[in-house]
Amino acid sequence: MKKIVLNHWMNIIKNNKRYDNVKLAEIEYGLTAIYLTFSKLIVIALLSILLGIFKEMIIFLLIYNVLRMPSFGIHATKSWICLLTSSILFIGLPIVCLNIHLSIAIKIIIGVIECFLMFKNSPADTKKRPIVNPKRRLTYKFISTILAITFVVLSITINNIFISNCLVFGLILQNVLISPLTYKIFKQPYNNYKEFLRLNPDFLNKKAC
Questions:
Q1: CA–CA separation, 9 vs 114, rounded Å?
Q2: CA separation for the pair 94, 53 (Å, rounded)
Q3: What is the mean pLDDT of residues 49-62?
Q4: Are 182 and 173 in contact (CB under 8 A)?
């Protein structure tokens, strides 16, 4: 199914004859990412509807992605692994958030640890998408840390227990996904921007020009 859809759209784009092979490869990569994202969301949405937690899944997903965007993190190497892990996490964690109660003291302790880890490890890039620009890395780190602090403050002040738990577990999940240990466990390279700059020592100088 994926090949049929992608081939259809790529044939339409190629017929325009406006792009070279490099640009076509970039477009195909982007379309593949969009397809996988939407197909994954459809499966997760159907599962959440069957379990009666569609609204809770959407809330957790939105909260989590606010933090995911500036701090990035590890990606699965295969689409089926991504689908499996995403289904488990985005179905399982909302269920946990619905059925657990954390004291304010526990939230504060978790929050302090998670904010420190977010400051230390964000942003965590990938081999396919190294974050090379130092200013951009610093900006992402600043935004991620501020968001982490905001999550903690909201989690201890908001009255809705489910949303409070979503803030806590969303922060924990994202810290797991940007952790060097997680990258090591799944045998993926960490701090990919360093390797990119080692192989392309003049890259920043060229960008400055």
A1: 42
A2: 8
A3: 96
A4: no
Token couple for 107: 């939230």
Amino acid at 165: N
* pLDDT tens digits along 128-169: 788 888 999 999 999 999 999 999 999 999 999 999 999 999
For 96-121, the pLDDT digits (tens) are 999 999 999 999 999 999 999 999 99
Cα separation, 96 vs 29, in Å, equals 35
Three-state DSSP class for residue 197: helix
* Residue located via tokens 């610093």: 138
Stronger pLDDT, 30 or 127, i.e. the higher one: 127
Q: Name the residue among 174, 176, 196, 203 with its Cα closest to residue 70.
A: 174
Phi, psi at residue 6, to the nearest 5°? -65, -40
Residue that is written with structure tokens 């990938």 in the block: 126
Average pLDDT, the chain: 87
| 3-class secondary-structure state, position 124 | strand
Residue from 176, 182, 163, 179 nearest 62 by CA = 163
Map out the domains of the chain as residue ranges: 1-51, 53-208
Decide: helix, strand or coil at residue 72.
strand
3-state DSSP assignment of residue 53: coil
